[in-house]
Every structure is written in structure tokens, then in C-alpha cells.
Amino acid sequence: MAQSENQVRVWVDGCFDMVHFGHANAIRQAKQMGDYLIVGVHSDEEIANHKGPPVFNEKERYKMVRAIKWVDEVIENAPYVTTLESLDKYNCDFCVHGDDITTTVDGTDTYHLVKKANRYKECKRTEGVSTTDIVGRMLLVTRTHHRGPEELNKDQVGAISQDHSTKSPWTGVAQFLPTTKKIIQFAEGKEPSPGDKIVYVAGAFDLFHVGHCDFLEKAAAEGDFVIVGLHSDQVVNHYRGANNPIMNLHERVLSVLACRYVSEVVIGAPYEVTAELMDHFKVDLVCHGKTPIMPTEDGSDPYAVPKERKKFKMLDSGNDLTTQKIVERIIRNRLDYEARNKKKTEKELKILEAMKNNFH
């Protein structure tokens, strides 16, 4: 089945709705199992049939998956049930999926065909993040998701992201626990080469989305090495207010590191782009998108230094999607998503029960 020179080709598929670092981590693990990674992404119609409306449309989801640095090729409109025909058509040796359960609308395991043919491998699911959980966070009016585990009111989060009278190990809300190992796995660890033009951009990059992707692609075209400065949760909350950021700093670091246009991330970067920062990273150009620039606490322009140095450029990504617009999409369709999440949890619990009965 493999290509010439014994190239191992790996297939991964999914909805990849609201692509988060959990998806990226599964893709990273799958790529480690072979040489060439093909990712099949389901269409809007397929997702709506099997699990309810996706948050992002298919064009947005295809683009997001293409931007993940471990992906070699994306297949659009991949079938919801993984078939041997799909694997054969793209010369893939096997399929990889996380150790959670994915089912069709009638409760069938979507990987039963490839499992039966022994062309299925599993990777570890990333604890503490799921699309269901993120939707739940967005529907919360409080900032519960920024508190420590001892302050976290699981019932309050659960009431929205799942039916809190039930507990599914896959859909249930958990705390994401960051480790240096995880950051190292996501980071390239490469230094800029002599003569590289270094581009610096800064922001929240909350709920990493296709608008961020388009902006970073434009920034990457301006130079050779893109550094992203990520503001801390406190800084983001200060200038965004309300329930922001939705993803904490560690989660945002992994989401940005997974993007193929990014070379390095500054964790908890200062809001103001200072002379010290520019000199330390040898920054040749600082870029900002079309989003409004909030002044610093003393009312000054956070980009004053790069502007004085004639090293500042506004970029138009051609995409007006913002984190706020995504939250508005969710709230607008709140009842649909709450129903979808509840249905998903109930379905998973039935499968769990069946698995226990079969085991006994």
C-alpha cells in the first residue's frame, strides 16, 4: 500500500469544527506514525446529518486544517464513515483516530470498517479540551474557565456544555493541565537563520480561527521568521473585558504554535511593543491587522516604538472574522448547540453502557 521508497501514508479524518489544540495534537501524533499525512474533512451537510450544525462552514474548516503544520494534504468532503475505499484511493496504509468514540446518527462506530480490516491505529486524546467544552465556555456569562481547579464550579460549566446529570468521559468538561513537554512537542525550536527578516505580531489570538490564519499567512509573506507575542489572560481581559479570553494563555500558545506560518511564540508578551523587545528579538517589522488598537493604560500607542523606527505595517487579511463574531454565532444558535451537546453526551453514555455489558 505504501508509496515508493516505503513511504508510510497516514489517513486522519474528522469534522475539525472550531479547530483547537486537541485536534492539532491528534494530527501531530498521527504524523509521527508515518511520513505523509492526509486529512479528510467532512462537509457541512455530513456533519449536520450526523451531529448537528457545525460552528464553522466547510470552507473555513478546510482552510484551518491546511494551516496546521503537520498536515501534508487535505481531502475535502470526506465521508463521515471511514471506508477502506478512502484509504485505498489515497494510498494510505492506515487510519488514526483519538481514543474517544465517534458515531453516526444511528450510533454506529464510524471506524468499524477500518478496525475490522486492521488498518486502524489510536492516538491519545488531549484531556481538558473539546469543541463541546469550548462551546460551553462561550455560553457562560462568568469567567469560570479562568479560575483554578479548586474554584471551578463543574455543575455550572456542565449545565451548558453537557447535561450535568450525566458524565461522559469524552464530552465532559475537564481542566487542561499545561506541561513544558506539551509546549516542546508543539514548538519547532528553530532559530532564525542569518539574514532572515524577522516579523513580530502581537495579540490575544483567542479561539484561534480562520481570520487569525489569514492574518498570519499575510504576516509570513512579509518576512522569513514570524514571532507571535501572546498577551496574558489579565491583559486580554483588561482590553477585551467580559468573558475574555475564552481560551487561557497556555491553550492559546499551543493553538498558535500549531500554525505553519508561525516560527516562535512569546508567552505573556507585553502589551506595548517596546524598544527592548524589538532589540532582543532583532525585529525588522511589526505588523497589525485591521482590528482596533486599544491604547496602553497611560493612553499611549502600544506601537509607538516600531512606528518611530519606520518598522510598522498594517495588514489587511481580507477576512473580517473576529473572536467576538464567533461567540455571536454560538449565542445566536445557542439552543441548537445545547441540544447537540446533550444528544452527544447521551449517545456516548449508551455506548459506554453497552461496552461495560459486553465486557462483563
Structural class: alpha/beta
Provide the helix percentage.
25-40%
* Succession of helices and strands: EHEHHEHEHEHHHEHEHHEHEHEHH
Through-space gap between termini: 38 Å
Describe this structure in words.
This is ethanolamine-phosphate cytidylyltransferase. One of its GO terms (molecular function) is ethanolamine-phosphate cytidylyltransferase activity. Its EC number is 2.7.7.14. Keywords: Lipid biosynthesis, Lipid metabolism, Nucleotidyltransferase, Phospholipid biosynthesis, Phospholipid metabolism, Transferase. The protein has 360 residues and is an alpha/beta fold. It has 3 domains: 9-122, Rossmann fold (3-Layer(aba) Sandwich); 180-314, Rossmann fold; 324-359. It has helices spanning 21-32, 44-51, 58-66, 84-89, 112-116, 131-139, 154-161, 180-186, 210-220, 233-240, 249-257, 275-280, 304-308, 323-332, 334-359; strands spanning 9-14, 36-41, 73-76, 94-98, 120-123, 198-203, 225-230, 264-267, 285-288, 312-314. A 5-stranded parallel β-sheet has the order 3-2-1-4-5. A 5-stranded parallel β-sheet has the order 8-7-6-9-10. Helix 6 (131-139) crosses helix 7 (154-161) and helix 6 runs antiparallel to helix 15. The longest helix has 26 residues, at 334-359. It is globular. The two termini are 38 Å apart. The model is unreliable at 141-145 and 147-174 (pLDDT under 50).
Jot down its keywords:
13% strand; 360 residues; 15 helices; Rossmann fold; alpha/beta; five-stranded parallel β-sheet
